[in-house]
Structures are given as C-alpha cells and as structure tokens.
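Subgroup meeting minutes
Present: P.N., E.W., G.H.
Scribe: E.W.

1. P.N. recapped why we're keeping a running log of single-chain structure predictions: easier to compare across weeks, and new members can see raw inputs and outputs side by side.
2. G.H. added today's entry (186 aa).
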Amino acid sequence: MSSIKLDLTNVEISEKSQQILDLTKKGMGFVPNMYLGMAGNTSTLDSYTYVYDSFRKNSDFTSVEQEVVLLSVSYVNNCEYCMAAHSFVADKMSKVPTEITNALREGKELPNSKLNALSNFTKIMVEKRGWASQEDLDLFLKAGYSETHVLAVITGIAIKTLSNYSNHSTKPELDDTFSERKWTKG
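Output recorded in log:
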C-alpha cells in the first residue's frame, strides 16, 4: 500500500511537545519513534498521550482486553509500527498469552471466546465506521461485555486510528525495542 511521507525534519518541536517527549523518556527509558513523528504537531502528540493514558486507566477493560482492542484496530488499519509495538507491550508488559497475540497478528480466531468477541466487535466497528448492527452488538453483549464497553472500544479505536494514520504519514522507523515483534500483514 502506497501513501504519502511527511518530511518533518525542519519542523520546530513546541515546548509542550518537548515536555511530553521528556516525560515519555523518563517513564519508558526512550522515546518511541512514533512519538517523534507525532511531535510535529502538538495537538496530535498531546491528544494521543492524554487519551491513551485515560484509556489505560478508565476503560474498564483489563490490560489484556486493552491490547486486544489496540491490536485489532491496528490490524484492520494495517499499521506495521503499532502491530509490532503493541505485540511487544502485550507480551512483555500486559502479559497477554502468546497464542492470543499471535492470533491477533495473523487475523485468526482467538482461542478465548470472550476475547475473540471483543476483537471481532472492535474490527466490525472499525470496518463499518461505527455503524455496527444490533446483531453485532448482541453478540458482543452475549460474550459478557456491557454497553459501557462499547464506548471504551470507541475510545480504543480513536487512539489507534490517531496513531495508525499518523504512522502511515510519518513512517517512523521501528524502534529496536519492538523489532523482535516486527509485523507485516500476511
């Protein structure tokens, strides 16, 4: 798939963006290349980090469920950077079982029916641009989720769509940290 490539080499990083990058480095030990691309516009980086943090703290999903949402969106949007990064986060930080992460990376059914329903609903919401059918919703609810989880899925979609689209345009080099989980849609 071909797309534009933004040249942000001469863009001055705002003070606010620099603060976010500094906090990121302090928290993670490095600044992901994706963040450097987003720093070209403060509203992009600030929005992403704020909503990402809120999703992690307030979505009412477990860390495993959060990764299922984020990886499902990135799979549909074909974002190689986010698939690699969140596969790493899923494996190393969120303790997602490898068979779950691998199934998400391969676009296959998940071996856990509740997580599979979450992934399917997330993908449907992305593919149908939020216009899920009542049947789609009923299957999601039947799996053990609630109406409030629908809103959390929408938040996850917003976060990953922002980063996926930004990555499509800025084409960040995959960080060495994430390289063991490099991904290309098969």
